[in-house]
Amino acid sequence: MIPRYSRPEMVAIWSPETKFRIWYEIEAHACDAQANLGVIPKENAEAVWKAKDVTFDIDRIDEIERETKHDVIAFLTHLAEHVGSDEARFVHQGMTSSDVLDTCFNVQLVRASDILIKDLEGLLAALKKRAYEHKDTVRIGRSHGIHAEPTTMGLTFARFYAEMDRNLSRMRDARAEIATGAISGAVGTFANIDPAVEEHVCDQMGLVPEPISTQVIPRDRHAAFFATLGVIASSIENVAIEIRHMQRTEVLEAAEFFSMGQKGSSAMPHKKNPVLTENLTGLARLVRMAVIPAMENVALWHERDISHSSVERNIGPDTTITLDFALHRLTGVIDKLLVYPQNMLDNMNKFPGLVMSQRVLLALTQAGVSREDAYRLVQRNAMKVWDHRTDFREELLADEEVRAALSEEEINEKFDLGYHTKHVDTIFERVFGDPT
Amino acid sequence: MIPRYSRPEMVAIWSPETKFRIWYEIEAHACDAQANLGVIPKENAEAVWKAKDVTFDIDRIDEIERETKHDVIAFLTHLAEHVGSDEARFVHQGMTSSDVLDTCFNVQLVRASDILIKDLEGLLAALKKRAYEHKDTVRIGRSHGIHAEPTTMGLTFARFYAEMDRNLSRMRDARAEIATGAISGAVGTFANIDPAVEEHVCDQMGLVPEPISTQVIPRDRHAAFFATLGVIASSIENVAIEIRHMQRTEVLEAAEFFSMGQKGSSAMPHKKNPVLTENLTGLARLVRMAVIPAMENVALWHERDISHSSVERNIGPDTTITLDFALHRLTGVIDKLLVYPQNMLDNMNKFPGLVMSQRVLLALTQAGVSREDAYRLVQRNAMKVWDHRTDFREELLADEEVRAALSEEEINEKFDLGYHTKHVDTIFERVFGDPT
Amino acid sequence: MIPRYSRPEMVAIWSPETKFRIWYEIEAHACDAQANLGVIPKENAEAVWKAKDVTFDIDRIDEIERETKHDVIAFLTHLAEHVGSDEARFVHQGMTSSDVLDTCFNVQLVRASDILIKDLEGLLAALKKRAYEHKDTVRIGRSHGIHAEPTTMGLTFARFYAEMDRNLSRMRDARAEIATGAISGAVGTFANIDPAVEEHVCDQMGLVPEPISTQVIPRDRHAAFFATLGVIASSIENVAIEIRHMQRTEVLEAAEFFSMGQKGSSAMPHKKNPVLTENLTGLARLVRMAVIPAMENVALWHERDISHSSVERNIGPDTTITLDFALHRLTGVIDKLLVYPQNMLDNMNKFPGLVMSQRVLLALTQAGVSREDAYRLVQRNAMKVWDHRTDFREELLADEEVRAALSEEEINEKFDLGYHTKHVDTIFERVFGDPT
Amino acid sequence: MIPRYSRPEMVAIWSPETKFRIWYEIEAHACDAQANLGVIPKENAEAVWKAKDVTFDIDRIDEIERETKHDVIAFLTHLAEHVGSDEARFVHQGMTSSDVLDTCFNVQLVRASDILIKDLEGLLAALKKRAYEHKDTVRIGRSHGIHAEPTTMGLTFARFYAEMDRNLSRMRDARAEIATGAISGAVGTFANIDPAVEEHVCDQMGLVPEPISTQVIPRDRHAAFFATLGVIASSIENVAIEIRHMQRTEVLEAAEFFSMGQKGSSAMPHKKNPVLTENLTGLARLVRMAVIPAMENVALWHERDISHSSVERNIGPDTTITLDFALHRLTGVIDKLLVYPQNMLDNMNKFPGLVMSQRVLLALTQAGVSREDAYRLVQRNAMKVWDHRTDFREELLADEEVRAALSEEEINEKFDLGYHTKHVDTIFERVFGDPT
């Protein structure tokens, strides 16, 4: 994660300030619960809230950590400097560092998820708008990069919509995966702290208690979470590649918006490059690369070790910040994408009529020609069009073997574009619940 | 995937025989639907079912493919050899190869999922049985590999149960992700085939229609599927590592069952090695390594390309076969795991009483000592135990500063094991819904 | 690895027959060395060679392994069935299974490397031939998929040559990484076997002794080996992507050879798809996915564990077989690639003259215009060509501000293609050591 | 990368200040070369050096980039603000942004490599010192985590030394991989810039010219570079895991140095955790996760795209900073590692004499017992020791079948520790070139 690819709202979630604030809230809520249980005096619990409006001094905490080599102890020592050493002496009682660290990490991931969910909703809105706008904009469908049969630009946006809608659903599941907290004490037995404390803290922090936590919250949850981010990133790459292809000089069916004053190349003033979607291709790799370490983090030794910690300190912020940025960037690209319908038609007719070959094949079969013969007849005429850019319809009309099966009218009828778009409404209804 | 790590039921799903059988069913059901729509003659649809009991000749299909370089065409040509070239001429009408290939692949993944779900259920049963069996078997909990505080072996099994239960739920979601089919024709527009055909075929094959398929079923589904397998594999590694640790010579709290006639080492006859769980550690890596390629597969060019195909031909069988084998192997390991309760007690007392340090710390704090002083007092006595293996309780009793805060009786009371296991029932209720 | 993507010579290296043959040779050579040292009787060493021409019975070995659950012991038991139980009793003396397994694995990797080196040499020859053939075939260079400036097809082949030549060098280094053997006994101390045995066996098997082996050959070597295969696979993808782009319908500057009888699509007879290079894209992912598990294999517990074993049983054959197949396939693609020089010229002139924008920019600067103004002037005219497909040269000639700096002759001179190819010989000399 | 796991010298290489400084030097040296060729006026080349001592204003450059959306153009505009717009008008002539960016990136990687090489040399020195210190410190060798046969702590350090020495050699190769520069202009044809400029700039920047660069320096080089960092990180994990195992409470053969004032746990004052090596385990994953994206970066479209750029902006600094930190941390751990020889002996004797089983096996075979019978005899007595912790030597002496083959003296002689360490000098000579 670097500032270049970051947005402030997500960055703020991962600041030391936010982290210590969450630690503080966890500790303070825990004190309340302990006081309610009669484990610690009420006045000590109340005293902790004296620090409610304090902005903790990060340099001071770092200074203490350099001595203790333990971040939670450093924070607690600093907290006591605010609350009073005597009043603070029941803070953290019965808890272990993981109770604070793991619960805090999940709070941060939940907040990050909320932003990502909003990002996806914004992207869906942009895709839907463009889908309806170009529902009937015909262009050639391609398989293997080769012209296949006509489709519409609206269907392209619609398939991205459907894919991102699945991602929204996956993201909500991923949020649920990590919306748990644990205040279960050393090795997770609740020996030194009543389960009621966990319930209260989780309730206050918007989490549910982890059913069994053995000191750490189990990392299969986080593996599933980061895997979901990896899937979403891969979908971003999918959309990005389509746009990069469309913007190629030879294709030019769409282009990223190019602002006034923008320069495409330091050397070649004629250039307009799809730099945003190329960038998204790379960002997708960055999000994806966290998936395997997150899975390697699952196997901790016994009740816990901290091999996962340095990994999560990095991939927690890095992936959520990068994915947030990427989703936002993609939404802008979709929103402002320049679409060139005339170029779409021109491209489709590069080899005139060729893309209708299947219809002719089917018509021949329907007319009684065997599938093998029909294939041979169509391929024979198609190859002429490939080689000499003649008109496929005219080649067919001139082929006696074809004409033995199909009349001129029957052949001509096969070159109607409407044939290919007749089910667009059906598909839109499936995707958006509404055909028009 | 190699025979050594394979079970026949899962291997059968991926055999050429099964694949061609599924292709056949898709084509035959599609003909039925086409005939119902009046697109092709009923007798041609019926004729296809003549091959219902045929075992297709794989060598013959391979031979045809060597000429056509196209596997679906090779199969259709061979099918016509059974059905009759004339009767077969409407087979595959309006469809494209992807309709057959993608729908077949998902049928195979659904069947594989069903086996994996059964595997997970079996593993859960074994874990539950062992959890209740050792609910009260006390052993030392460890963090960082270092003795922390007492816990029970039952809690260890229970946490694996909870983790695998989450995996069961993830696996069911993953099954739903890929339980879709597509019969939408070239570039997915239904230009040449009515959506009703797709509905009929999916219904017959146990799938739901893919809302928008653009020739291929979108690969974000498969990325999510394989990512789930990767998470499950990581959980297997998590359990395996715990057992490997328990079987270490110095720990020896549990061991894989060692059968008569088994040889641990060709050179050292005294060895009993945790070879099954070491093996599972490696198998987990094999399943996990498919996650990134599955994500790289998401970004296809335009409506489709086939860069994903060679990847899936490998990881489809490899990951499901390996994971099935691993789950089954792990179930056996859990089921027959030798547990040594006496060794657990012996290990816990290696540094006598030391694992109770936190209780003493809390007691000192409760008695009015500041947290910092209490920590210092406890650490001072703990270090003596580390260095000289003396008894922690006796050190405390002999420490005047400690005794100024705590009486002999109060100190003695802190060394009661029951204190640490008092919430085991609570946790079992959370995990299994039943405390006993 | 599946038969579809395998070649027999590489597959043979990984057959059980080959493996047992190598095990046999290691054991027999070790006996010779032991006899020379006087540790075992000469006649027993000689007796082992009685099995020299035996093809070992794999089913029988498997049967024994099912009882002993130890593959090396199973083999030794079977070997004794050939050699005679009494004569065989010194076989494997002082050795441990890893001595056989690890040394054998490295022998297999060395042999696989030799094939891969030959593959790379074949690919280099094909690339060189095509590079010289198209040294002067002008086509547009593209950055970001957008037309940039002219280059030649020969330079494209030359850059692939240079990249694959680096890969050849890396492959030779990788071969050296794993060309070590170890016969050091349990935990690698040579307690039970003299280092002279290791020297003799390694010498006979074409290896060098591992300096310090602690029972296993250290896996950082294998990590480096598989990482190298991953780099080579990525280069294959690089070439494949270029060809896939060139074959796009809109570009069509090159195409994979399309044989008689081949069918591009079951539905659309007009299709010629770049299926081989798409396939190579997927195969690259398969090779690459082994890199991380190979790195995870490095950290073994203490002197050894066998978590790496199941991984290597798979990735050893899978990656070498797949990479061999891919290199061979790519060589065929390059060798027979259809190149369309006329289409290259047509594409370059899609926006007439536009690709010369930099030269005009430089000329304006040389003529005293500030860099910023020059950029603005050129971009202004370039945008007209983008928007209306007019001729860039004519636009410039008509732009008074441009003409204030450059004469008609000076402008015309900037549109000479030879300007862009004047250093092709220099580059060829750098790459091939020979300009022509 | 986060400050917590960073060292300033490496961080400085990746600062914007350093980057712009390198850009400046590349541009200034290029101007010199251009002036020598007579392409631009000498006074303009000299004028550029006016900015020699300028610290570039990063905020200003960012401000310009926000308008131009092009970082190199933004820098050049700012440079002109220092040098004078007129004097600066030949800066960057004939060059493209990639010439600056790619050459700069490689300069940074080379400098990073130099630090990493120094780190490895420091680690090797520490390992060597500890190896000789504990050359004869006997401890049990373990395979599968199970006691095998005696070895020495010095051999453990020696094998890490040998592995890191290979890594040093790999790191030097990796440095050579990326020590190339390119000043070849748009699409790399040198159309607008003479190859002599490239030679001069590379020479001044400590690089060699890339033989063929097609605008970008080919990314197979970087893939190989980052793969090497991944291998080194995996070796760090290998060492870290060994130390974590040794520090386990039950093993306690070594421990990380624990400073005064350090706190192992916020809850349990008795804890001393191997937190540094656990941390290294996680850092290894972070370095390793960059390998696959670096390989995905190899396949750029045509002459170039910038999908690799966002990846490299992250993994360039992240991996080198993390690896530098990890190597430095590991060196400290090794240097100060507490080693407990007495615990090593105690552990070895946990099952008295058992670890000598192989010698007895060999002795029985030498005495004429068949291998199978010998194995059975030894295993029979070993199992008694496992089950009842009796003394293996005494069990053997009491076993009549054993005694039929071996005398009491012969049996006793097999329990001599010196037998296992007799080749330590040989191995040290192999590793260090010097036995003592």
TrEMBL record, chains A, B, C, D:
Keyword Metal-binding: no
Catalytic activity: (2S)-2-[5-amino-1-(5-phospho-beta-D-ribosyl)imidazole-4-carboxamido]succinate = 5-amino-1-(5-phospho-beta-D-ribosyl)imidazole-4-carboxamide + fumarate; N(6)-(1,2-dicarboxyethyl)-AMP = fumarate + AMP
Signal peptide start and end residues: none
E.C. numbers: 4.3.2.2
Pathway field: Purine metabolism; IMP biosynthesis via de novo pathway; 5-amino-1-(5-phospho-D-ribosyl)imidazole-4-carboxamide from 5-amino-1-(5-phospho-D-ribosyl)imidazole-4-carboxylate: step 2/2; Purine metabolism; AMP biosynthesis via de novo pathway; AMP from IMP: step 2/2
Any one Pfam family match given in the protein's UniProt record, by short name: ADSL_C
GO molecular function: (S)-2-(5-amino-1-(5-phospho-D-ribosyl)imidazole-4-carboxamido) succinate lyase (fumarate-forming) activity; N6-(1,2-dicarboxyethyl)AMP AMP-lyase (fumarate-forming) activity
Entry keyword set: Lyase, Purine biosynthesis
UniProt keyword Ion transport present: no
An individual GO BP term: 'de novo' AMP biosynthetic process
Enzyme class at the top of the EC tree: lyase
UniProt GO cellular component terms: cytosol
Family (UniProt): Belongs to the lyase 1 family. Adenylosuccinate lyase subfamily.
Protein name according to UniProt: Adenylosuccinate lyase
Organism annotation: Mameliella alba
Organism phylogeny: Bacteria, Pseudomonadati, Pseudomonadota, Alphaproteobacteria, Rhodobacterales
